[in-house]
Amino acid sequence: EVQLAESGGGLVQPGSSLRLSCAASGFTFGSYDMSWLRQAPGKGPEWVSTISRGGGNTYYADSVKGRFTVSRDNAKNTLYLEMRSLTPEDTAKYYCVNAEGSWGQGTQVTVSS
Fold it and tell me: Taking residues 93-100, what's their average pLDDT?
């Protein structure tokens, strides 16, 4: 059974940083591109970032480019999202998604003063 467990969210002030993690199991993690998506209240899902299976290629939405960094540790079956200079517009539930479309339960990020 595919399991994706996100963690690391929280309530932070604008300008802060957070590091999200996604622990994967039930599939060969290192064989799949992985992505982060987010969903703000009342809005549809928004793609945030994708990393290739080996980690050599990364892609970002324009809204987070230069502030967010995606990485992975295939030995630990874990995906990461380092987020800097957070703004209220980054408030959303963040999900990790594998290339087959399996989602985790999400972790809430709230940016507010």
Answer: 96
